[in-house]
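Sequence only, no structure available. Ideas?
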Amino acid sequence: MDICIHSAFLPHTDPDASLAFYRDALGFEVRSDVGYDGLRWITVGPAGRPGTALVLEPVAPPGCGITDDERRTIAEMMAKGTYAGVNLAAGDLDAMFARLREHGAEIVQEPADQPYGVRDGAVRDPAGNLIRIQQS
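Reply:
I predicted one. Tokens follow.
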């Protein structure tokens, strides 16, 4: 069986800020930017890897079956960075973090050698999603 991850979804609270972060700070290319009923779904991915994408989606859009209490809980978790996240890899971790700092990204953890055998660091995107990046 041949299977791979095609796309993962991360919520956004400000589509323009998220677009700037993923496109400008991380260097992803924009694959699509689709609006519907005042909301936006933005698909981004690493250049040269068309089979891998992140879809930046509105948080709990109307009609998705989420209650107001659940929506508040999601907002609280996003504000703390505990709702969603993704792990990425970069060929030059230190250069990636220098680029992130240049773009004003919120650095959660500077690159460091971890006891579990990888060198990685962490940032938060504009919606609060935790993005861990390890040296590839």
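The helical segments are 15-25, 68-80, 93-102.
Hope that gets you unstuck.
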